[in-house]
Write a structure and sequence with these properties.
five-stranded parallel beta sheet; alpha/beta; Rossmann fold; 13 strands; single chain; eight-stranded mixed beta sheet; 2 domains
Protein backbone atom coordinates (compact mmCIF):
# COMPACT_ATOMS: atom_id res chain seq x y z
CA UNK A 1 0.00 0.00 0.00
CA UNK A 2 1.26 3.45 -0.89
CA UNK A 3 1.36 6.10 1.82
CA UNK A 4 -1.48 8.00 0.17
CA UNK A 5 -4.75 8.64 2.02
CA UNK A 6 -8.22 9.40 0.65
CA UNK A 7 -10.23 11.29 3.26
CA UNK A 8 -14.04 11.22 3.29
CA UNK A 9 -16.09 13.68 5.41
CA UNK A 10 -19.86 13.48 6.06
CA UNK A 11 -21.96 14.00 9.13
CA UNK A 12 -24.24 11.05 8.16
CA UNK A 13 -22.53 7.88 9.34
CA UNK A 14 -24.42 5.60 6.92
CA UNK A 15 -23.43 7.75 3.95
CA UNK A 16 -19.87 7.96 5.22
CA UNK A 17 -19.47 4.21 5.66
CA UNK A 18 -21.03 3.54 2.27
CA UNK A 19 -18.58 5.95 0.68
CA UNK A 20 -15.68 4.32 2.52
CA UNK A 21 -16.73 0.82 1.44
CA UNK A 22 -17.18 1.80 -2.21
CA UNK A 23 -13.82 3.52 -2.43
CA UNK A 24 -12.14 0.72 -0.50
CA UNK A 25 -13.17 -1.87 -3.10
CA UNK A 26 -11.53 0.05 -5.95
CA UNK A 27 -8.66 1.82 -4.23
CA UNK A 28 -8.16 0.11 -0.86
CA UNK A 29 -5.21 -1.99 -2.08
CA UNK A 30 -3.14 1.14 -2.74
CA UNK A 31 -4.63 3.84 -0.54
CA UNK A 32 -5.91 4.11 3.01
CA UNK A 33 -9.52 5.30 3.15
CA UNK A 34 -9.99 7.50 6.23
CA UNK A 35 -13.26 9.08 7.42
CA UNK A 36 -14.34 11.98 9.60
CA UNK A 37 -17.86 12.89 10.78
CA UNK A 38 -17.24 16.63 11.22
CA UNK A 39 -15.13 19.48 9.93
CA UNK A 40 -13.24 19.78 13.20
CA UNK A 41 -12.40 16.08 13.22
CA UNK A 42 -11.33 16.29 9.60
CA UNK A 43 -8.93 19.18 10.22
CA UNK A 44 -7.27 17.37 13.11
CA UNK A 45 -6.94 14.23 10.99
CA UNK A 46 -5.43 16.18 8.07
CA UNK A 47 -2.82 17.72 10.36
CA UNK A 48 -2.00 14.29 11.78
CA UNK A 49 -1.67 12.66 8.36
CA UNK A 50 0.50 15.42 6.93
CA UNK A 51 2.65 15.46 10.06
CA UNK A 52 3.29 11.73 9.59
CA UNK A 53 4.47 12.36 6.02
CA UNK A 54 1.44 10.86 4.26
CA UNK A 55 0.25 12.01 0.85
CA UNK A 56 -3.27 13.38 0.87
CA UNK A 57 -4.25 13.17 -2.78
CA UNK A 58 -8.05 13.50 -2.35
CA UNK A 59 -10.49 14.89 0.17
CA UNK A 60 -14.22 14.25 -0.43
CA UNK A 61 -16.57 16.35 1.66
CA UNK A 62 -20.31 16.75 2.02
CA UNK A 63 -21.47 20.36 1.64
CA UNK A 64 -24.31 20.49 4.18
CA UNK A 65 -22.94 19.64 7.62
CA UNK A 66 -23.56 21.09 11.09
CA UNK A 67 -21.02 23.81 11.93
CA UNK A 68 -18.57 24.42 9.14
CA UNK A 69 -19.90 23.95 5.60
CA UNK A 70 -18.15 21.69 3.12
CA UNK A 71 -16.73 24.43 0.89
CA UNK A 72 -15.38 26.34 3.91
CA UNK A 73 -13.79 23.17 5.24
CA UNK A 74 -12.13 22.46 1.89
CA UNK A 75 -10.73 25.99 1.87
CA UNK A 76 -9.06 25.38 5.24
CA UNK A 77 -7.74 21.98 4.13
CA UNK A 78 -6.35 23.61 0.99
CA UNK A 79 -4.33 26.00 3.15
CA UNK A 80 -2.84 23.00 4.97
CA UNK A 81 -2.29 20.92 1.81
CA UNK A 82 -2.45 23.03 -1.39
CA UNK A 83 -1.74 20.07 -3.69
CA UNK A 84 -4.73 18.02 -2.49
CA UNK A 85 -7.56 17.55 -5.00
CA UNK A 86 -10.97 18.21 -3.43
CA UNK A 87 -14.39 16.86 -4.34
CA UNK A 88 -17.62 18.39 -3.01
CA UNK A 89 -20.76 16.26 -2.48
CA UNK A 90 -23.99 18.27 -2.46
CA UNK A 91 -27.63 17.32 -2.45
CA UNK A 92 -28.54 20.57 -4.18
CA UNK A 93 -26.55 22.75 -6.51
CA UNK A 94 -25.04 25.68 -4.61
CA UNK A 95 -23.21 27.70 -7.24
CA UNK A 96 -21.81 30.18 -4.74
CA UNK A 97 -20.31 27.39 -2.63
CA UNK A 98 -18.93 25.62 -5.69
CA UNK A 99 -17.40 28.85 -6.97
CA UNK A 100 -15.76 29.48 -3.60
CA UNK A 101 -14.32 25.97 -3.60
CA UNK A 102 -13.05 26.29 -7.18
CA UNK A 103 -11.33 29.59 -6.45
CA UNK A 104 -9.95 28.83 -3.01
CA UNK A 105 -9.88 25.07 -2.40
CA UNK A 106 -8.46 23.47 -5.58
CA UNK A 107 -11.93 21.92 -6.25
CA UNK A 108 -11.58 19.19 -8.82
CA UNK A 109 -15.28 18.47 -9.18
CA UNK A 110 -18.58 18.59 -7.37
CA UNK A 111 -20.88 15.53 -7.41
CA UNK A 112 -24.59 15.56 -6.73
CA UNK A 113 -26.06 13.28 -4.10
CA UNK A 114 -27.05 10.57 -4.48
CA UNK A 115 -24.07 9.86 -6.69
CA UNK A 116 -23.63 7.27 -9.38
CA UNK A 117 -21.05 4.68 -8.33
CA UNK A 118 -19.14 4.55 -11.67
CA UNK A 119 -19.13 8.35 -11.86
CA UNK A 120 -17.62 8.62 -8.38
CA UNK A 121 -14.97 5.98 -9.08
CA UNK A 122 -14.01 7.58 -12.39
CA UNK A 123 -13.80 11.00 -10.76
CA UNK A 124 -11.59 9.71 -7.95
CA UNK A 125 -9.39 7.77 -10.37
CA UNK A 126 -8.81 10.83 -12.54
CA UNK A 127 -8.19 12.98 -9.48
CA UNK A 128 -5.59 10.52 -8.21
CA UNK A 129 -3.93 10.52 -11.62
CA UNK A 130 -3.84 14.34 -11.63
CA UNK A 131 -2.46 14.55 -8.08
CA UNK A 132 0.46 12.22 -8.77
CA UNK A 133 1.16 13.80 -12.14
CA UNK A 134 1.33 17.16 -10.38
CA UNK A 135 3.60 15.64 -7.76
CA UNK A 136 5.90 14.24 -10.44
CA UNK A 137 6.01 17.61 -12.17
CA UNK A 138 6.79 19.26 -8.82
CA UNK A 139 9.63 16.81 -8.20
CA UNK A 140 10.97 17.43 -11.69
CA UNK A 141 10.66 21.18 -11.21
CA UNK A 142 12.53 21.02 -7.90
CA UNK A 143 15.20 18.88 -9.54
CA UNK A 144 15.39 21.34 -12.42
CA UNK A 145 15.57 24.25 -10.00
CA UNK A 146 18.41 22.54 -8.14
CA UNK A 147 20.22 21.85 -11.40
CA UNK A 148 19.62 25.47 -12.44
CA UNK A 149 21.04 26.73 -9.14
CA UNK A 150 24.07 24.50 -9.57
CA UNK A 151 24.45 25.66 -13.16
CA UNK A 152 24.06 29.31 -12.14
CA UNK A 153 26.69 28.76 -9.46
CA UNK A 154 29.05 27.19 -12.01
CA UNK A 155 28.35 30.00 -14.49
CA UNK A 156 28.95 32.60 -11.77
CA UNK A 157 32.21 30.91 -10.75
CA UNK A 158 33.33 30.60 -14.38
CA UNK A 159 32.32 34.20 -15.08
CA UNK A 160 34.35 35.31 -12.07
CA UNK A 161 37.30 33.26 -13.33
CA UNK A 162 36.96 34.77 -16.82
CA UNK A 163 36.70 38.28 -15.37
CA UNK A 164 39.84 37.65 -13.32
CA UNK A 165 41.61 36.26 -16.39
CA UNK A 166 40.49 39.31 -18.38
CA UNK A 167 41.70 41.62 -15.61
CA UNK A 168 45.09 39.91 -15.61
CA UNK A 169 45.20 39.99 -19.42
CA UNK A 170 44.33 43.70 -19.47
CA UNK A 171 46.86 44.37 -16.73
CA UNK A 172 49.53 42.50 -18.66
CA UNK A 173 48.65 44.37 -21.85
CA UNK A 174 48.91 47.70 -20.02
CA UNK A 175 52.34 46.67 -18.76
CA UNK A 176 53.38 46.27 -22.39
CA UNK A 177 51.45 49.01 -24.18
CA UNK A 178 50.15 52.49 -23.36
CA UNK A 179 46.50 52.45 -22.25
CA UNK A 180 45.25 54.30 -25.34
CA UNK A 181 47.13 51.94 -27.68
CA UNK A 182 45.98 48.85 -25.77
CA UNK A 183 42.35 49.98 -26.04
CA UNK A 184 42.70 50.52 -29.79
CA UNK A 185 44.36 47.13 -30.23
CA UNK A 186 41.56 45.34 -28.30
CA UNK A 187 38.83 47.17 -30.23
CA UNK A 188 40.25 46.98 -33.76
CA UNK A 189 42.82 44.18 -33.60
CA UNK A 190 45.52 46.67 -34.63
CA UNK A 191 46.95 49.98 -33.49
CA UNK A 192 47.77 52.69 -36.01
CA UNK A 193 51.25 54.21 -35.82
CA UNK A 194 51.13 57.97 -35.19
CA UNK A 195 53.38 60.93 -35.92
CA UNK A 196 54.18 63.28 -33.04
CA UNK A 197 55.64 66.77 -33.41
CA UNK A 198 57.00 67.07 -29.90
CA UNK A 199 58.05 64.11 -27.79
CA UNK A 200 60.83 63.98 -25.21
CA UNK A 201 62.83 60.74 -25.16
CA UNK A 202 64.87 59.70 -22.11
CA UNK A 203 67.56 57.00 -21.97
CA UNK A 204 69.46 55.71 -18.93
CA UNK A 205 72.47 53.39 -18.93
CA UNK A 206 74.70 51.97 -16.20
CA UNK A 207 78.42 52.66 -16.61
CA UNK A 208 80.68 49.60 -16.94
CA UNK A 209 77.68 47.30 -16.76
CA UNK A 210 79.52 44.41 -18.46
CA UNK A 211 82.19 44.48 -15.77
CA UNK A 212 79.60 44.75 -13.00
CA UNK A 213 77.70 41.78 -14.44
CA UNK A 214 80.77 39.53 -14.19
CA UNK A 215 81.30 40.32 -10.52
CA UNK A 216 77.94 39.05 -9.25
CA UNK A 217 75.72 36.01 -9.77
CA UNK A 218 72.96 36.05 -12.43
CA UNK A 219 70.36 36.00 -9.67
CA UNK A 220 71.86 39.04 -7.97
CA UNK A 221 72.18 40.80 -11.32
CA UNK A 222 68.50 40.35 -12.10
CA UNK A 223 67.52 41.33 -8.56
CA UNK A 224 69.55 44.55 -8.76
CA UNK A 225 68.25 45.52 -12.20
CA UNK A 226 64.70 44.86 -11.06
CA UNK A 227 65.26 47.00 -7.97
CA UNK A 228 66.46 49.90 -10.09
CA UNK A 229 63.90 49.59 -12.87
CA UNK A 230 61.04 49.31 -10.38
CA UNK A 231 62.17 52.59 -8.83
CA UNK A 232 62.49 54.16 -12.29
CA UNK A 233 58.97 52.96 -13.16
CA UNK A 234 57.54 54.66 -10.08
CA UNK A 235 59.39 57.90 -10.79
CA UNK A 236 58.41 58.24 -14.46
CA UNK A 237 54.84 57.29 -13.57
CA UNK A 238 54.64 60.26 -11.23
CA UNK A 239 55.82 62.51 -14.07
CA UNK A 240 53.37 61.17 -16.68
CA UNK A 241 56.03 59.51 -18.83
CA UNK A 242 55.48 56.30 -20.78
CA UNK A 243 57.91 53.43 -20.32
CA UNK A 244 58.94 52.12 -23.75
CA UNK A 245 61.35 49.26 -23.06
CA UNK A 246 64.50 48.01 -21.39
CA UNK A 247 67.39 46.50 -23.33
CA UNK A 248 69.89 44.95 -20.95
CA UNK A 249 70.97 47.80 -18.71
CA UNK A 250 69.43 50.49 -20.94
CA UNK A 251 66.09 51.99 -19.88
CA UNK A 252 63.97 54.00 -22.33
CA UNK A 253 60.90 56.14 -21.70
CA UNK A 254 59.21 59.14 -23.30
CA UNK A 255 56.82 62.00 -22.56
CA UNK A 256 54.15 63.52 -24.79
CA UNK A 257 52.72 60.28 -26.09
CA UNK A 258 50.36 58.60 -26.71
CA UNK A 259 48.53 61.63 -25.26
CA UNK A 260 50.21 64.77 -26.52
CA UNK A 261 51.07 67.60 -24.12
CA UNK A 262 53.24 70.71 -23.97
CA UNK A 263 55.05 69.87 -20.72
CA UNK A 264 56.81 66.64 -21.71
CA UNK A 265 60.29 68.20 -21.79
CA UNK A 266 59.96 69.50 -18.20
CA UNK A 267 58.34 66.22 -17.16
CA UNK A 268 61.23 64.19 -18.55
CA UNK A 269 63.96 66.37 -17.05
CA UNK A 270 62.18 66.35 -13.67
CA UNK A 271 62.00 62.55 -13.78
CA UNK A 272 65.66 62.29 -14.81
CA UNK A 273 66.70 64.59 -11.97
CA UNK A 274 64.73 62.46 -9.50
CA UNK A 275 66.22 59.23 -10.91
CA UNK A 276 69.76 60.55 -10.40
CA UNK A 277 68.87 61.52 -6.82
CA UNK A 278 67.43 58.06 -6.14
CA UNK A 279 70.51 56.32 -7.63
CA UNK A 280 72.85 58.49 -5.51
CA UNK A 281 71.04 57.57 -2.28
CA UNK A 282 70.78 53.92 -3.35
CA UNK A 283 74.50 53.74 -4.05
CA UNK A 284 75.32 55.25 -0.65
CA UNK A 285 73.28 52.48 0.97
CA UNK A 286 75.10 49.88 -1.13
CA UNK A 287 78.52 51.25 -0.17
CA UNK A 288 77.56 51.00 3.49
CA UNK A 289 76.97 47.29 2.89
CA UNK A 290 80.26 46.84 1.06
CA UNK A 291 78.62 46.54 -2.38
CA UNK A 292 79.71 48.10 -5.68
CA UNK A 293 78.17 51.30 -6.97
CA UNK A 294 75.99 51.30 -10.07
CA UNK A 295 76.48 54.73 -11.62
CA UNK A 296 74.01 55.85 -14.28
CA UNK A 297 74.13 58.21 -17.25
CA UNK A 298 70.95 59.88 -18.49
CA UNK A 299 70.41 61.52 -21.86
CA UNK A 300 67.36 63.46 -23.10
CA UNK A 301 66.25 64.96 -26.41
CA UNK A 302 63.00 66.51 -27.65
CA UNK A 303 61.84 66.23 -31.25
CA UNK A 304 59.55 64.63 -33.83
CA UNK A 305 59.04 60.89 -34.11
CA UNK A 306 56.65 58.08 -35.00
CA UNK A 307 55.21 55.76 -32.33
CA UNK A 308 53.09 52.64 -32.55
CA UNK A 309 52.81 48.88 -32.67
CA UNK A 310 53.99 46.82 -35.61
CA UNK A 311 53.80 43.12 -36.39
CA UNK A 312 51.18 40.48 -35.54
CA UNK A 313 52.83 38.62 -32.68
CA UNK A 314 54.54 39.63 -29.44
CA UNK A 315 53.28 43.20 -29.73
CA UNK A 316 55.61 45.94 -28.55
CA UNK A 317 55.12 49.69 -28.52
CA UNK A 318 58.15 51.39 -30.02
CA UNK A 319 59.46 54.72 -31.29
CA UNK A 320 61.16 55.57 -34.58
CA UNK A 321 62.85 58.72 -35.80
CA UNK A 322 65.91 60.88 -35.53
CA UNK A 323 64.75 62.13 -32.11
CA UNK A 324 65.29 58.63 -30.71
CA UNK A 325 68.81 58.42 -32.12
CA UNK A 326 69.75 61.86 -30.79
CA UNK A 327 68.40 60.99 -27.30
CA UNK A 328 70.57 57.85 -27.34
CA UNK A 329 73.59 60.01 -28.26
CA UNK A 330 72.76 62.33 -25.36
CA UNK A 331 73.04 59.34 -23.03
CA UNK A 332 76.31 57.99 -24.46
CA UNK A 333 77.76 61.53 -24.58
CA UNK A 334 76.88 62.23 -20.95
CA UNK A 335 78.59 61.53 -17.65
CA UNK A 336 77.61 59.39 -14.69
CA UNK A 337 75.56 61.11 -12.05
CA UNK A 338 74.43 63.79 -14.49
CA UNK A 339 71.53 64.53 -16.84
CA UNK A 340 72.70 65.42 -20.35
CA UNK A 341 70.18 67.23 -22.61
CA UNK A 342 70.10 68.53 -26.16
CA UNK A 343 69.64 72.15 -27.21
CA UNK A 344 66.05 71.43 -28.26
CA UNK A 345 65.20 70.19 -24.77
CA UNK A 346 67.20 73.02 -23.15
CA UNK A 347 65.05 75.65 -24.92
CA UNK A 348 61.93 74.08 -23.39
CA UNK A 349 63.23 73.75 -19.79
CA UNK A 350 65.61 76.69 -19.33
CA UNK A 351 63.00 78.58 -17.30
CA UNK A 352 62.61 75.64 -14.89
CA UNK A 353 66.19 74.30 -14.63
CA UNK A 354 69.61 75.89 -14.46
CA UNK A 355 71.76 74.22 -17.11
CA UNK A 356 75.49 74.29 -17.95
CA UNK A 357 76.39 74.58 -21.61
CA UNK A 358 79.03 71.98 -22.52
CA UNK A 359 79.68 73.23 -26.03
CA UNK A 360 79.45 71.24 -29.22
CA UNK A 361 80.16 67.59 -28.47
CA UNK A 362 80.93 65.00 -31.12
CA UNK A 363 78.13 62.42 -31.37
CA UNK A 364 78.54 59.21 -33.34
CA UNK A 365 76.78 59.52 -36.69
CA UNK A 366 75.47 63.01 -35.87
CA UNK A 367 78.51 65.21 -35.93
CA UNK A 368 78.79 67.89 -33.29
CA UNK A 369 75.73 68.56 -31.12
CA UNK A 370 75.10 71.29 -28.53
CA UNK A 371 74.81 69.59 -25.13
CA UNK A 372 73.89 70.78 -21.65
CA UNK A 373 74.15 69.31 -18.17
CA UNK A 374 71.18 69.97 -15.90
CA UNK A 375 72.73 71.66 -12.85
CA UNK A 376 69.77 72.37 -10.60
CA UNK A 377 66.10 73.31 -10.43
CA UNK A 378 65.24 76.99 -10.56
Amino acid sequence: MENGVILCIDDERVVLHGLQAQLGRDFGSKYAIEVAESGEEALELVKELLGAGNDLPIVISDQLMPGIKGHELLKQIHKLSPATYTILLTGQTDLEAVTEAVNHANLYRYISKPWEGPDLILTVREALKGFYQDKQVERQNKLLERHNRELEKLVAERTKELQEEKRKSDELLLNILPEETAAELKEKGEATARHYDMVTVLFTDFQAFTKLATEISPQELIYTLNECYSAFDDIIGRHELEKIKTIGDAYMCAGGLPTENSTNARDAVSAAWEIQQWVTEWNEARKAKGLNSWDVRIGIHTGKLIAGVIGKKKFAYDLWGDAVNIAARMETGGETGKVNISHATYELVKDSFRCEYRGKIEAKGKGEIDMYFVADKI
